[in-house]
Amino acid sequence: MLAKRIIPCLDICNGRTVKGTNFVNLRDAGDPVELGRLYSEQGADELTFLDITASFEGRKTFTELVERIAANISIPFTVGGGIHELKDVERLLKAGADKVSVNSAAIKNPHLIDEIALNFGSQVCVAAIDAKQTDDGWRCFLNGGRVPTDRMLFEWAREAQEHGAGEILFTSMDHDGVKQGFANEALRRLSDELSIPVIASGGAGAKEHFRDAFLEGHADAALAASVFHFGEIPIPELKQYLCGLKIPIRI
Fold first, then answer.
1. Whole-model pTM?
2. How many other C-beta atoms lie within 10 A of the C-beta of residue 119?
3. Model confidence at 26: pLDDT above 80
4. I want to staple 26 with a disulfide (CB 3.0 to 4.6 A). Which of 18, 78, 89, 251 is the partner?
5. Are 103 and 120 in contact (CB under 8 A)?
6. Could you give the CA distance from residue 107 to residue 61 in angstroms, rounded to a whole number?
7. Which is it for strands 137-142 and 5-13: parallel, antiparallel or unpaired?
8. Sign of CA dihedral 72, 49, 101, 195
9. Are 184 and 175 in contact (CB under 8 A)?
10. Positions marked catalytic
11. What is the pLDDT of residue 23?
């Protein structure tokens, strides 16, 4: 069995790491370069950087900041935000990213996933999906959760896989920042229906929540922000806890 991954996430707004609840009420969480270095040293399996207002504001991800973070870490690095075309991907890979995360642009133009997979390989393309439960099911949202779409979570995840995405990063907007656990039922359905890895995001508040994402949600990786940024759950402590439960994890 492949090792489960622990992934800290740097949500970036105006060059600073921020964290909110349900995608709003953002507060400062520190310098992204220093946090990235810390997580690399603590044994995080990967690092994710999301420029959360890039699509909404219509600008490009901070390439210089990506370069600075990449120079200070020794773990795989995923970058997302404002990626609309292949030259955006190429620019970020040259800046030090190992993978790119596409969300709004991929829903608007699914063939962007095909192009990334064809030119750089499926392993480079992470399809990020922000979704919340509505009366008719899990609906996908664009632009950092601001704009509802006619896309539904499970159908879009399957389509993204068919277009060549190498991973799905699923964030439950209902669970984001609430610290009551991940959306394990939806995670389990995604993980069981797809043949590519699923990353859980939204809801981490205790070590047990990571356990449940892996054992109940069948997730391949779990991503979190505030519990790491504010020192609530040290990554080495979390990994030892999961190892004690016989969950395959890299120490």
1. 0.92
2. 12
3. no
4. 18
5. no
6. 18
7. unpaired
8. positive
9. no
10. 11, 130
11. 44
